[in-house]
Design a protein that fits this description.
mainly alpha
């Protein structure tokens, strides 16, 4: 299942309805941590919904850690009933994040990943970041679209942080940001040289393992974006 922070309203309504039905079923049976849920087929028949809707709802609940699929054993409740009900309530009440909220989260995350990357990077990491940087430079110098190369540069830094959770969050946050990103507005006044230098400064700080310098350079890189969402 593809987990996305941005979902259509129709899909969200259907998914939340199925999640609520699963929650009510778990509560009616007073299941405890480790207890097995009915099969997808049984729940599909009971709720009168398609099996793929059951499957997507279960996988979303697995993503948040309240259910767990066991090989050859089916799906079980991963936490206690009180915690399960509380977390499900938060899941179904989540609003679709705004561009500002996504950007605020991404910037906070990137400042931490670049700090860790500057401390933990290996020679292999530096080669990967440098390769992404060169690809970014080639695109921007040729006047081509470079947002994807920019993304790969930041993902290479995240990978160097050696924190898989941060990489996962980056992968979740970036697509919805890119889909609504207005580069002409955010980067108005920037030149090719300044854009390249910002990226090079980040890379060089990581090479030197200067954590605070790396954070400062990342802040400088995001300065206009930060100002944009504050307006």
């Amino acid at each position: 299942m593809k987990i996305s922070l941005i979902e259509s309203n129709n899909k969200k309504v259907i998914q939340n309805d199925v999640i609520c039905k699963i929650r009510d079923l778990i509560n009616s049976r007073k299941l405890e941590r480790g207890d097995k849920l009915p099969s997808e087929r049984i729940m599909s028949d009971k709720f009168d919904v398609k099996r793929n809707h059951i499957r997507e709802a279960i996988r979303k609940l697995e993503f948040y850690g309240v259910l767990k699929s066991m090989s050859q054993s089916g799906t079980v409740l991963a936490i206690g009933l009180t915690g399960f009900n509380g977390i499900v309530e938060e899941i179904i009440s989540l609003d679709t994040p705004s561009f500002k909220e996504l950007v605020e989260t991404r910037i906070s995350l990137e400042l931490k990943t670049v700090w860790l990357a500057s401390q933990r990077r290996t020679e292999e990491d530096l080669e990967r970041i440098k390769e992404a940087l060169n690809a970014f430079k080639a695109k921007i110098l040729n006047g081509e679209e470079y947002l994807e190369e920019d993304l790969l540069f930041h993902l290479a830094i995240a990978k160097a942080s050696k924190n898989s959770t941060m990489i996962t969050l980056m992968l979740l946050l970036t697509p919805p940001i890119l889909s609504t990103y207005e580069r002409e507005t955010v980067c108005e006044g920037d030149t090719i040289i300044t854009e390249i230098k910002k990226h090079e400064d980040i890379y060089n700080a990581i090479v030197l393992q200067e954590s605070q310098l790396a954070v400062d350079m990342m802040k400088k890189h995001f300065y206009k974006l930060t100002k944009h969402i504050e307006n």
